[in-house]
Amino acid sequence: MEIQMNDITLHYEETGNGIPIVMIHGFPLNRKIWQPQLQNLTDSARMLAVDLRGFGESPSTSGPSTMDLYAKDIAEMLDRLDIIAPVLVGLSMGGYVALSFYRRYARWLSGLILVSTRASADSKETKESRDRMVNIVKEPEGIKSITNIMLPKMLSPKSYIEKPELVSLVKEIMETSSVDGISGALMGMKDRSDSTEILTGFNIPTLIIHGSDDQLVPLAEAESMAKAIPNSKFQVIPNAGHLPNMEQPDQFNNIMSTFLKDL
Ligand code: MLT
To answer: Domain 2-262 classified CATH 3.40.50.1820?
Structure first.
């Protein structure tokens, strides 16, 4: 499915009926990461998984894709689809987008699910590494190089051994990203605001989910968000890395269903 917006057409997939859930993927991924949820949580929820601009089937635009720009895209999409009071689910970079959305449009939301993400901004070292990656992706075979850098960090050690088909799927998803999509996201993540200070003022139901073996975002980041956000729920999924919704889909879906039932 696609939706024509002011300056771009966004592609998304929709399943199920019930409370609207909008799912935002991480970097350098696309909406396909949410297949285990799109297929299995349809009884109680209307699930929408979107390709952020520059990823999956959504075209890229030049220049930085700031987290605020992605958040504005989601807001415009909700408006055009007449979606009221959704739950936003953001994984990693998708979590940065969800936090930016919360800053601007908190009153629109009925809940937030933050997966494998952090509230802090980039450190100086991370900003430097983003710049290096922007240069790498522009080289010939740049997307393959980014995939080679990121793929070994995406999953838990157990998933690499026991789930070769998942490793291939994640590789395929990464390799279909575009150069402009990747560099725009890197520049946007580098300049994102620190959201740590807003956490204590959160006033919507919030669930934080993290894989025990996440190599990209340390578990401590999720623990400190859980401590700061009033009444938040926090679940650690064992034997999962940065993509717990794909690595341990049954556990992930049970956690999500319980949260949705309690809303
Ligand atoms: C992601 O998975 O979205 C990225 O690892 C986030 C980041 O690089 O900060």
So the answer is: yes
Q: How much is the pTM?
A: 0.98
Residue 1: exposed, middle, or buried by beta-carbon count in 10 A (0-12, 13-18, 19+)? exposed
Q: What is the pLDDT of residues 83-117, one digit of tens each?
A: 999 999 999 999 999 999 999 999 999 999 999 99
Question: Residue 132: what are its φ and ψ, rounded to 5°?
Answer: -65, -40
- Ligand 1 center from residue 43 Cα (angstroms): 30
- Does an H or E element contain 133, and which? helix 124-138
36 closest CA partner among 28, 26, 47, 27: 47
Q: Give residue 160's identity as a one-letter amino acid code.
A: Y
Query: How many angstroms is it from 27 CA to the middle of ligand 1?
Result: 5
Query: Do the Cβ atoms of 71 and 97 come closer than 8 Å?
Result: yes
Nearest CA owner, ligand 1 atom 9: 93
Phi, psi (degrees; rounded to nearest 5) at 202:
-60, 135
